[in-house]
Amino acid sequence: MSKLRNVLEANFHNDVKDPEYLKYKKIIIDKLEEEIKQEIISEETERVIEAEERARTIRNIDRVKDVFLTVVVIGILVGVTGNQITELISIGKQGLSIGWTWAVAICLVGMMYLYFWISYLRQATNEIRKFKEKND
Fold first, then answer.
1. What is the DSSP string of 52-102?
2. Signed CA dihedral, 100, 106, 111, 114: sign only
3. pLDDT for residue 13
4. What string of pLDDT tens digits covers the 136 residues of the chain?
Protein backbone atom coordinates (compact mmCIF):
# COMPACT_ATOMS: atom_id res chain seq x y z
CA MET A 1 0.00 0.00 0.00
CA SER A 2 1.10 3.51 -0.72
CA LYS A 3 1.47 6.24 1.87
CA LEU A 4 -1.41 8.10 0.27
CA ARG A 5 -3.72 5.11 0.61
CA ASN A 6 -2.64 4.63 4.24
CA VAL A 7 -3.49 8.27 5.02
CA LEU A 8 -6.87 7.99 3.30
CA GLU A 9 -7.75 4.77 5.11
CA ALA A 10 -6.69 6.23 8.44
CA ASN A 11 -9.38 8.90 8.05
CA PHE A 12 -12.20 6.36 7.89
CA HIS A 13 -13.75 4.39 10.74
CA ASN A 14 -11.85 1.12 10.65
CA ASP A 15 -13.82 -0.58 13.40
CA VAL A 16 -17.01 -0.85 11.31
CA LYS A 17 -17.46 -4.34 9.83
CA ASP A 18 -20.58 -3.71 7.77
CA PRO A 19 -19.96 -5.15 4.25
CA GLU A 20 -21.80 -2.30 2.52
CA TYR A 21 -19.74 0.29 4.44
CA LEU A 22 -16.52 -1.51 3.52
CA LYS A 23 -17.59 -1.65 -0.14
CA TYR A 24 -18.31 2.09 -0.29
CA LYS A 25 -15.21 2.86 1.77
CA LYS A 26 -13.04 1.07 -0.81
CA ILE A 27 -14.75 2.86 -3.71
CA ILE A 28 -14.39 6.27 -2.06
CA ILE A 29 -10.74 5.66 -1.17
CA ASP A 30 -10.00 4.49 -4.73
CA LYS A 31 -11.65 7.61 -6.20
CA LEU A 32 -9.91 9.97 -3.78
CA GLU A 33 -6.56 8.33 -4.43
CA GLU A 34 -7.01 8.64 -8.19
CA GLU A 35 -8.09 12.30 -7.97
CA ILE A 36 -5.14 13.21 -5.75
CA LYS A 37 -2.71 11.42 -8.07
CA GLN A 38 -4.10 13.22 -11.11
CA GLU A 39 -3.85 16.58 -9.34
CA ILE A 40 -0.23 15.94 -8.37
CA ILE A 41 0.63 14.84 -11.89
CA SER A 42 -0.95 17.92 -13.47
CA GLU A 43 0.82 20.26 -11.00
CA GLU A 44 4.19 18.63 -11.60
CA THR A 45 3.66 18.69 -15.36
CA GLU A 46 2.96 22.42 -15.24
CA ARG A 47 6.03 23.00 -13.07
CA VAL A 48 8.30 21.06 -15.44
CA ILE A 49 6.91 22.88 -18.48
CA GLU A 50 7.44 26.28 -16.84
CA ALA A 51 11.01 25.35 -15.87
CA GLU A 52 11.76 24.23 -19.43
CA GLU A 53 10.33 27.44 -20.87
CA ARG A 54 12.46 29.51 -18.47
CA ALA A 55 15.57 27.54 -19.43
CA ARG A 56 14.79 27.97 -23.15
CA THR A 57 14.32 31.73 -22.66
CA ILE A 58 17.65 32.01 -20.86
CA ARG A 59 19.39 30.07 -23.65
CA ASN A 60 17.82 32.37 -26.26
CA ILE A 61 18.91 35.47 -24.35
CA ASP A 62 22.47 34.11 -24.19
CA ARG A 63 22.42 33.49 -27.94
CA VAL A 64 21.17 37.02 -28.59
CA LYS A 65 23.97 38.42 -26.41
CA ASP A 66 26.56 36.43 -28.40
CA VAL A 67 25.12 37.56 -31.72
CA PHE A 68 24.94 41.19 -30.58
CA LEU A 69 28.58 41.18 -29.46
CA THR A 70 29.65 39.59 -32.72
CA VAL A 71 27.73 42.15 -34.77
CA VAL A 72 29.21 45.04 -32.78
CA VAL A 73 32.78 43.80 -33.17
CA ILE A 74 32.38 43.06 -36.87
CA GLY A 75 30.67 46.44 -37.35
CA ILE A 76 33.60 48.23 -35.74
CA LEU A 77 36.08 46.29 -37.86
CA VAL A 78 34.10 47.02 -41.04
CA GLY A 79 34.00 50.71 -40.14
CA VAL A 80 37.74 50.88 -39.52
CA THR A 81 38.37 48.96 -42.75
CA GLY A 82 36.17 51.42 -44.61
CA ASN A 83 38.25 54.27 -43.19
CA GLN A 84 41.43 52.54 -44.33
CA ILE A 85 40.06 52.06 -47.83
CA THR A 86 39.06 55.73 -47.91
CA GLU A 87 42.59 56.60 -46.87
CA LEU A 88 43.95 54.34 -49.63
CA ILE A 89 41.86 56.22 -52.18
CA SER A 90 43.02 59.63 -50.91
CA ILE A 91 46.67 58.54 -50.77
CA GLY A 92 46.37 57.08 -54.26
CA LYS A 93 45.13 60.45 -55.51
CA GLN A 94 48.09 62.20 -53.91
CA GLY A 95 50.62 59.76 -55.35
CA LEU A 96 52.21 58.86 -51.98
CA SER A 97 53.41 55.47 -50.70
CA ILE A 98 50.45 53.39 -49.63
CA GLY A 99 52.17 50.19 -48.48
CA TRP A 100 51.48 50.73 -44.78
CA THR A 101 47.81 51.53 -45.38
CA TRP A 102 47.42 48.42 -47.55
CA ALA A 103 48.97 46.29 -44.81
CA VAL A 104 46.59 47.70 -42.20
CA ALA A 105 43.57 47.21 -44.49
CA ILE A 106 44.55 43.60 -45.22
CA CYS A 107 45.09 42.92 -41.52
CA LEU A 108 41.66 44.36 -40.70
CA VAL A 109 39.96 42.23 -43.34
CA GLY A 110 41.82 39.21 -41.95
CA MET A 111 40.69 40.08 -38.43
CA MET A 112 37.07 40.37 -39.59
CA TYR A 113 37.26 36.97 -41.28
CA LEU A 114 38.94 35.38 -38.26
CA TYR A 115 36.40 36.80 -35.85
CA PHE A 116 33.55 35.72 -38.10
CA TRP A 117 35.05 32.23 -38.30
CA ILE A 118 35.49 31.98 -34.54
CA SER A 119 32.11 33.33 -33.49
CA TYR A 120 29.48 32.58 -36.11
CA LEU A 121 30.82 29.37 -37.56
CA ARG A 122 31.63 27.94 -34.12
CA GLN A 123 28.07 28.64 -32.99
CA ALA A 124 26.67 27.13 -36.17
CA THR A 125 28.84 24.04 -35.74
CA ASN A 126 27.64 23.62 -32.15
CA GLU A 127 24.00 23.96 -33.21
CA ILE A 128 24.45 21.38 -35.98
CA ARG A 129 26.15 19.00 -33.54
CA LYS A 130 23.30 19.40 -31.03
CA PHE A 131 20.75 18.78 -33.79
CA LYS A 132 22.55 15.60 -34.88
CA GLU A 133 22.82 14.33 -31.30
CA LYS A 134 19.13 14.99 -30.71
CA ASN A 135 18.15 13.04 -33.84
CA ASP A 136 20.42 10.08 -33.13
1. HHHHHHHHHHHHHHHHHHHHHHHHHHHHHHHHHHHHHHHHHHHT---HHHH
2. negative
3. 64
4. 577 777 777 777 667 777 787 778 788 888 888 888 899 899 999 999 999 988 888 887 887 787 788 788 888 888 888 888 787 777 766 766 667 777 777 888 888 788 877 877 777 777 778 877 877 6
Distances (CA, A) of 87 to 70, 80, 122: 26, 11, 33
- In one-letter notation, the amino acid at residue 127 is E
Neighbours of 56 (CB within 10 A): 10
> What is the 8-class DSSP label of residue 11?
T
Q: How far is CA 107 from the centre of its chain?
A: 35
- Helix (H, G, I), strand (E, B), or coil: what is residue 2? coil
For residues 102 and 115, what is the distance between their CA atoms, to the nearest angstrom? Answer: 20
Q: Which residues, other chains included, contact 28 with Cβ-Cβ below 8 Å and sequence gap of 6+?
A: 12
Looking from the CA of 29 toward its CB, the CA atoms found within 13 Å total 20
